């Protein structure tokens, strides 16, 4: 018999209790890991380092209001601006309304320059881009989206419009990769498909995505654009891409505070449950602890054995909880990721997993130490008299 | 008549020497003396039954001798060590090396089988796996339980459990065995077997045994009976067998 075997056997003396506490630990760690990863994912969506050169111009009253495409000319005239791309959320679906994903009408001539960091991962050739530019009903799709639907270059994708009353049939001309899975779950088609199919969209656009030559130019550009269109019929709201994305996150409410609140509640609850379980388990072994000490186990050694039991218990629960969360993250990416682009990047980050495991171990030590310390301080003679 | 005369337990080198040992408990501000002025020498190889009415202090005396309690006065030398000089950790190591415990309720660990229960004290000795296995098998063989070494306590009778506990007590080859009512939870047949086994440990292996018992039949297996009365040594009786 080795020490680990002794610890494991002691832990398994009440299998039902051990399984129940491990189960509650698994659920708790799973919940915390998923919630914290959600926060990390949302944070990453609003802190994209690749977007430092980009900003977004939209109608001050909201995304449902359009801006004249002529604004593009003014934006291009600014010396700090490298290029501009008109972009409109189309909101179509493929075959089934549940088969929903991000699709946009975008200015095909500037799309690749605006998002060159994102498209840079694809090794896209000039010939491929020309293929797309030549075909007015062509489209480009992310690799993840193409894989999900079994699409390949040359396939025709019929989209059913939900916001706009057209159902374009688009031919895939290019499949791209991106560092972010959320970008790979998108489809772009020529802006003129929208303009020609929907007369009211002629000369209008939902937003302009602008690439500045240098990130440090952006603050004064934001201010200048909004000032220029102040008191016009189409006032603008100009903000960085990260701020624009943050606006979507804020629509979910103060999600950060909610998640942290739930996390604290879960941690406190599991601390109480684990503490109570360990206290009961140790109290039941008062006589056994006294016998161990009578046989020559020092108080410190008995304390170490009891702490090791607590740590092993929460270690197993924590590991399974993180593993379950990791498994669930794949499901979230595959389901919610299509409807809400943020979730396409959802994963349990290694630092979140480690923090959850460290937190679980801290709970194990904290919950075990107090009853274990008290048990090992109890005189041996009292322990031997205790009714087990 | 001095103490040495009154409590002469035969010749031989003393393994236990108590000088004016006292033990009191405190209940709030009230001192409750349990043992007073105990002077006693127990030679190597003795088999002592500590007897006396409830509250006479016999278990307290056993606990002091076994090093699981400390006196409030006097000196206590056991197996060549002045126990007052040892700190708690040293005392724990000392117990592991020199004392084997036999309890009334056996106190085996329920989640460990007989082999593992006996092996427990050896985990502290630094003995390798092979050496531990040999010593455990030897101890279990001595108590005639080699065929039950993979059985868990719940699969053993009371008598078998106590024999496993005895194997656990002797596996480190201690100088001293202390037993607190070792037959208190056993029927007459099993009690007789356990007592016979303890007598063998005394006569064949030369173990010094100090046993607390209420049972005159059990006490009859010892070589000497020491009677306590209200915390003081009352008399000693040599058992004629």
From TrEMBL, chain A:
Residues 263-379 form the ABC3 transporter permease C-terminal domain. It is found in: Cell membrane. This is Membrane protein. The lineage of its organism: Bacteria, Pseudomonadati, Acidobacteriota, Holophagae, Holophagales. Keywords: Cell membrane, Membrane, Transmembrane, Transmembrane helix. The keyword Transmembrane applies. Signal peptide: none annotated. It is a multi-pass membrane protein. The keyword Transmembrane applies. The chain crosses the membrane at residues 258-282, 303-332, 352-375. It comes from the Bacteria. Residues 18-226 form the MacB-like periplasmic core domain.
UniProtKB/TrEMBL annotation, chain B:
GO terms for molecular function: ATP binding. Pfam families: ABC_tran (PF00005). Keywords: ATP-binding, Nucleotide-binding, Transport. Residues 16-239 form the ABC transporter domain. It comes from the Bacteria. PANTHER family: ABC TRANSPORTER ATP-BINDING PROTEIN, IMPORT ATP-BINDING PROTEIN. This is ABC transporter ATP-binding protein. It comes from Geothrix limicola. The lineage of its organism: Bacteria, Pseudomonadati, Acidobacteriota, Holophagae, Holophagales.
């Amino acid at each position: 018999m080795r020490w680990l075997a002794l610890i494991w056997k002691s832990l398994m003396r009440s299998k039902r209790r051990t399984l129940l506490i491990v189960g509650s630990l698994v659920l708790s760690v799973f919940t915390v890991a998923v919630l914290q990863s959600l926060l990390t994912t949302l944070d990453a969506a609003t802190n994209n380092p690749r977007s430092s050169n980009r900003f977004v111009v939209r109608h001050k009253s909201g995304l449902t209001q359009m801006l004249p495409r002529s604004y593009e000319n003014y934006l291009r005239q600014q010396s700090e601006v490298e290029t501009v791309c008109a972009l409109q959320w189309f909101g179509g679906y493929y075959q089934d309304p549940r088969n929903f994903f991000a699709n946009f009408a975008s200015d095909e001539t500037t799309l690749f320059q605006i998002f060159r960091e994102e498209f840079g991962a694809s090794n896209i050739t000039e010939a491929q881009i020309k293929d797309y530019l030549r075909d007015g009903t062509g489209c480009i799709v992310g690799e993840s989206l193409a894989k999900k639907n079994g699409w390949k270059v040359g396939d025709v994708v019929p989209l059913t419009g939900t916001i706009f009353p057209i159902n374009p049939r688009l031919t895939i001309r290019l499949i791209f990769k991106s560092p972010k899975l959320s970008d790979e779950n998108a489809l772009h088609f020529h802006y003129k498909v929208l303009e020609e199919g929907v007369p009211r969209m002629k000369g209008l656009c939902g937003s302009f995505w602008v690439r500045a030559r240098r990130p440090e130019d952006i603050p004064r550009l934001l201010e200048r654009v909004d000032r220029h269109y102040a008191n016009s019929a189409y006032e603008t709201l100009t903000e960085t891409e990260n701020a624009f994305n943050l606006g979507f996150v804020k629509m979910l409410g103060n999600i950060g505070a909610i998640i942290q609140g739930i996390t604290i509640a879960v941690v406190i609850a599991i601390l109480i449950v684990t503490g109570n379980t360990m206290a009961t388990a140790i109290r039941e072994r008062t006589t056994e602890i006294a016998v161990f000490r009578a046989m020559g186990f020092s108080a410190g050694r008995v304390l170490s054995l009891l702490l090791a039991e607590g740590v092993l218990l929460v270690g197993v629960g924590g590991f399974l909880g993180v593993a379950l969360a990791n498994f669930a993250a794949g499901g979230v990416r595959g389901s919610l990721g299509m409807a809400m682009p943020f979730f396409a990047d959802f994963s349990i980050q290694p630092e979140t997993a480690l923090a959850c495991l460290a937190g679980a171990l801290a709970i194990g030590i904290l919950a075990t130490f107090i009853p274990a310390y008290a048990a090992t301080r109890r005189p041996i003679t009292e322990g031997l008299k205790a009714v087990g | 008549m001095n103490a040495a005369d009154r409590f002469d337990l035969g010749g031989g080198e003393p393994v236990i020497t108590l000088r004016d040992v006292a033990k009191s408990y405190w209940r709030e501000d009230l001192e409750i003396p349990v043992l007073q002025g105990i002077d006693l020498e127990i030679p190597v190889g003795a088999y002592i039954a500590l007897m006396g009415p409830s509250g006479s202090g016999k278990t307290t005396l056993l606990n002091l001798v076994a090093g699981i309690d400390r006196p409030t006065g006097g000196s206590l030398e056991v197996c060549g060590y002045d126990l007052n000089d040892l700190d708690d950790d040293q005392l724990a190591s000392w117990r592991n090396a020199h004392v084997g415990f036999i309890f009334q309720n056996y106190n085996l660990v329920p989640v460990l089988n007989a082999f593992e229960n006996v092996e427990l004290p050896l985990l502290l000795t630094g003995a390798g796996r092979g050496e531990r296995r040999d010593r455990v098998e030897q101890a279990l063989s001595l108590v005639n339980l080699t065929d039950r070494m993979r059985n868990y306590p719940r699969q053993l009778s009371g008598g078998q459990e106590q024999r496993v506990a005895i194997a656990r007590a002797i596996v480190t080859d201690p100088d001293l065995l202390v037993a607190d009512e070792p037959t208190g939870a056993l029927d007459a047949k099993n009690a007789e077997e356990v007592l016979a086994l303890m007598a063998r440990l005394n006569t064949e292996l030369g173990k010094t045994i100090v046993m607390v018992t209420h049972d005159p039949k059990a006490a009859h297996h010892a070589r000497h009976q020491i009677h306590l009365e209200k915390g003081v040594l009352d008399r000693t009786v040599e058992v004629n067998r």
